[in-house]
Amino acid sequence: MNRNKLAKLRRRIAELRHASAKAIAFQRLAKQLGREKDKNRGKEPTWVNRDFPALRPLSIPDHGGRDIPYGTKQSMLNQLEEDVYSWDELLLQQESEKIKGVK
Questions:
Q1: What is the pLDDT of residue 63?
Q2: From CA 65, how far away is CA 25, in angstroms rounded?
Q3: Of 17, 26, 81, 98, whose CB neighbour count within 10 A is largest?
Q4: What is the second-level CATH architecture of the domain 3-102?
Q5: Over the stretch 39-80, which tens digit does the pLDDT of each residue have?
Q6: Are the CB atoms for 33 and 6 separated by under 8 Å?
Q7: What residues pair up with 45 in beta bridges, in sequence order?
Q8: What's the pTM?
Q9: What angle do CA 77, 86, 78 make, to 5 degrees?
Q10: Comparing 25 with 63, which gets the higher pLDDT?
Q11: What is the largest CA-CA distance in the chain?
Q12: At a CB cut-off of 8 Å and minimum separation 6, what does 3 contact?
């Protein structure tokens, strides 16, 4: 993950907030943020973040290509934004360690 990729993912989340979306869009976004599908959880497909295990699992309902309801969509995007914030913090930490290492 790098800053450019993270900025692109942030823009994609903002786009999804204002458009109708299907489950496949959320699955792609989750995968790009480092989430993997966990087959050992519940009825709905659940995605967990292996890089940040403290983040809550994300259920992405997939009901035959129908659009995700508005409230569900907003909730999922909020969780995916938490992934973005976690990546942002990790990148900041790595950058500060590089700067300290150079001095």
A1: 79
A2: 11
A3: 26
A4: 2-Layer Sandwich (3.30)
A5: 887 778 899 998 999 999 999 998 787 889 999 999 999 999
A6: no
A7: none
A8: 0.87
A9: 15
A10: 25
A11: 56
A12: 91
